Amino acid sequence: MYFHRKIYLNVQRSTYSCYRKHCLKDIFVRCFHYICTHASRDFLIMYFYIFNKEIFNKLGLKEPKSYAEFKTVCQKIQDAGITPIYEATTNGWHQVLPLFETGGKWLKDDAKIYDELNANQKDLKDVPTLLTVIKQLDECAKAGYFGDDYLSNAWENAKEAIATGRCAMTIGELGWIGEVDADYPDFKAKEKLGAFVMPWGDNQVIGVNNASNAYFINKDSKHVAEAFFDFLARPENLKKSRQEWESLISQIRRPPIGIRVF
Questions:
Q1: Which residue, of 23, 73, 194, 245, has the fewest CB within 10 Å?
Q2: What's the CATH architecture for 7-261?
């Protein structure tokens, strides 16, 4: 396992509001040292708690900035007969997001943690924040904040859970709001859904994954470049690429933001 160094964004109201305003589908950020290219597209991935603003407003709730505040919010939502969080436990990548998207807190506690992990000088058990978050997740599960059937929840059903108001929050990218809006237009997701930083372990730093999709090919293959060019030039692939770029051009915004690189 290799622990990627990440870019972390300081969460300030003006910057955060700018992100929510401008980034409709995905967040695309150009950074000189952390660029992952796929079909000439540079992008980074960030996860937030996506929440139903209508439910929050009705219950007089504010976006939590600490774990204690988060628990209070969850309890009030539960008391109102709504499942606070939709956690897609059957999807391995989703259930671990609270652990590995709070890396900014790791770095705050130990600036050398990523280098030490990659050099096998430390183990995951040596990261205090991880144990803290695991205990908090267990506490919330036992309190019923993930619902009664969270162990069988799948990410494929998350949109329905949020759009119907059955659940108030889930972890997702900002671009996921656009996906909900497309599948449930009557819900008006772009108006009703907001986002806040995952406060597990009292974290208030956004982790940015310098990650991208990639193509793989057998290293012993011959004429790799020619074969790959032929693949990209297939009519169906050209059509798909054009449609993606048209969508990207119409939605992308580049707000002025501050990026701290660790």
A1: 245
A2: 3-Layer(aba) Sandwich (3.40)
